[in-house]
Amino acid sequence: MLHNKGSLEVIVGCMFSGKTEELMRLIRRAEYAKQKVVTIKHRIDNRVDTTCINSHAGRILIAAAADDMTSMRAAIPDDVQVVAIDEIQFFPLEVLDVIEDLINQGVRVIAAGLDTDFRGEPFGVMPHVLTIADHVHKLTAICVRCGKDARFTQRLVNGNPADWNDPLILIGAEDSYEARCRSCFSINRPASRYGKK
Q1: 3 state DSSP class of 135
Q2: For the chain, what percent of residues have pLDDT higher than 70?
Q3: Is residue 5 within 8 Å of residue 104, measured between CB atoms?
Q4: Mean of all residue pLDDT scores within the chain
Q5: Is 171 within 8 Å of 134 (Cβ atoms)?
Q6: What is the DSSP letter of 32?
Q7: Global pTM?
């Protein structure tokens, strides 16, 4: 007998593009359809609370906090139908094993996160997650400088663009980050990141 596998949907974009809002919308739809849903977030994201996900629009949804695969697996019951993961870029590469196990069990996985970091580089596990995705929703924000579509997350330190060598992870919101288009995005990028010029 053929076993129906699940799927992986990924919601990506820069900060303030509505990723968590879209994740919440898909969670609500699954709940309306009477599906058993579990929402997981990375424990590092403690902007409001470690037991919920929150959108920049102010909406809040209960979530289990995890930072390793043991705590993530412990939060997922056997009869789950949909697993939603917010801020997936913070999880280690082993999250792919959890996702593939869930898909093989027939679970629909929905993951949301940043596709690039403040340097404009691929963020953590996200390139791998995008590679195995069945569906990708790429969202943009509005550039705070010129109003065009924004796909970059500009980190600010005292109102100025952060330095390339600043720490990769800094949890924050409007006080530390802005959405910017390619023209308005600024970073002191090394001369060559991919090899000799």
Answers
A1: strand
A2: 86
A3: yes
A4: 90
A5: no
A6: H
A7: 0.89
> In which element (H, E) is residue 8 found?
strand 7-13
Strand order in the sheet with 7-13: 64-66, 37-42, 82-86, 108-114, 7-13, 135-139
Q: Do residues 158 and 167 lie in contact, with contact meaning Cβ atoms separated by under 8 Å? A: no
Catalytic residue among 22, 87, 94, 121: 87
Q: Which two tokens stand for residue 196?
A: 């000799």
Distance of alpha carbon 112 from alpha carbon 4, whole angstroms: 24
* Contact assessment for residue 75 and residue 64, using Cβ atoms and an 8 Å cutoff: yes
Q: In the predicted model, is pLDDT for residue 51 greater than 80?
A: no
Domains of the chain by range and CATH?
Answer: 7-139 (3.40.50.300)
100 given a catalytic annotation: no
* Position 3 confidence tier, pLDDT thresholds 50, 70, 90: confident
pLDDT at 156: 93
User: What's phi and psi for 134, nearest 5 deg?
Assistant: -85, -35
